[in-house]
Amino acid sequence: MSSSSTSSPPSLCDFALPIFHNGLHSLTHILESAKSFAPTQGLNPDEAYVQARLIDDQLPLVFQIQNAVKTVMINLNRLTGKELPLDLNQGNNEKTFGDMIHLVRLATLEVRSVMENQPEEKKDSEIINLLAGGRPIRLTVSEAVRLHGIPNFIFHITTAYSILRAKGVPLGKADFISGFVGW
Q1: Is this prediction's pTM over 0.85?
Q2: Taking the alpha carbons of 112, 118, 122, 124 in that order, is the dihedral positive or negative?
Q3: In the predicted model, what is the mean pLDDT of residues 157-177?
Q4: Is the N end or the C end of the chain the one with fewer CB atoms within 10 Å?
Q5: What is the rounded CA–CA span in Å between residue 27 and residue 4?
Q6: How many helices (H) and strands (E) does the chain have?
Q7: What are phi and psi of 7, to 5 degrees?
Q8: Which residues neighbour 57 within 8 Å (Cβ) at sequence distance 6 or greater?
Q9: Taking residues 137-161, what's their average pLDDT?
Q10: Percent of the chain whose pLDDT exceeds 70
Q11: Over 60: is that where the pLDDT of 5 sits?
Q12: Cα atoms in the Cβ-side hemisphere of radius 13 Å centred on 69
């Protein structure tokens, strides 16, 4: 068996940052697959997919992409306490497939930069006030990232995948999972 170790458990950054980074990588792959597939079907990806929805009362693909990125950036701030260069206050101006891919790539670079610089984490005693299901809740930084941030991120990238899959893009489970596990 292994000898006893005095190493400390992984930090919240060690846990969360790879999920965000690899999930964004998966999202890039999914978007690029759709962009490549559209012309083979005589489709313009901007017209066929950007405003596509699974159901009428659900927000479109572009919203899912914007909110996946926004969730990552909010949680990078929660983890490190640092303002990040990707300005989410500019408005959601993405109109094309290229715009969406560019946004996801910028976020991926930002997460990678934070990972490489090994940030000092915020104290977990800090309380985050947020809305969940329209109700205000108070969570520690760790709870906010683990229980709200990561599930919210996964929700938006899963929804993006599902919208494109429903529009006929030949995506499978491996297309979604591969970015997370580095295939």
Answers
A1: yes
A2: positive
A3: 96
A4: N
A5: 39
A6: 7, 2
A7: -70, 150
A8: none
A9: 93
A10: 87
A11: no
A12: 28
Q: What's the pLDDT at 2? A: 45
Residues 91, 63: Cα–Cα separation, whole Å? 12
Report the distance separating Cα 23 and Cα 68, nearest Å.
9
Tell me, what amino acid is at 183?
Answer: W
Q: What is the pLDDT of residues 87-116, one digit of tens each?
A: 655 557 899 999 999 999 999 999 999 889
- State both tokens at 173: 């489970």
Q: Please name the amino acid found at residue 10.
A: P
Question: What CATH code would you report for 12-181?
Answer: 1.20.120.450
Mean pLDDT of 138-155: 92
Q: Which residue has tokens 């983890």?
A: 79
Identify the CA nearest to 75 among candidates 167, 143, 175: 143
The C-alpha atoms of residue 143 and residue 116 are separated, in whole angstroms, by 24
Please give the structure tokens belonging to residue 37: 């597939």
